[in-house]
Design a protein that fits this description.
Layout: H1 2-11, E1 27-32, E2 42-48, E3 51-59, E4 70-78, E5 81-86
């Protein structure tokens, strides 16, 4: 019975790691203006994995996406960067 109890407790543990892949498809808000043509320097705030996270962002659009605009995450570029499109 003690072994069963410890197994049940062990199964409840969580590593707390957020996976950036979970952000794909999520709507967020531009924090720092995103430059046009996949240039780096923009940031977005995206709610995923149970918390609001700030990620670097790029956009393929021909014009900048200003701060405060709503965007949708299209794909993951690397471990800290996502590609977004304006809504």
């Amino acid at each position: 019975m003690v072994v069963a109890m410890f197994r049940a407790i062990y199964s409840l543990k969580s590593d707390g790691t957020s996976r950036i892949d979970d952000a794909v498809g999520v709507v967020g808000t531009v924090y720092v203006t995103i430059p046009p043509a996949r240039a780096s320097g923009g940031q977005v705030m995206v709610p995923f994995s149970g918390r609001l996270q700030t990620l670097a962002a790029i956009s393929a659009a021909g014009k900048p996406i200003p701060s405060g605009e709503k965007v949708k995450v299209l794909s993951v570029v690397d471990t800290h960067t996502v590609q977004v499109e304006a809504l």
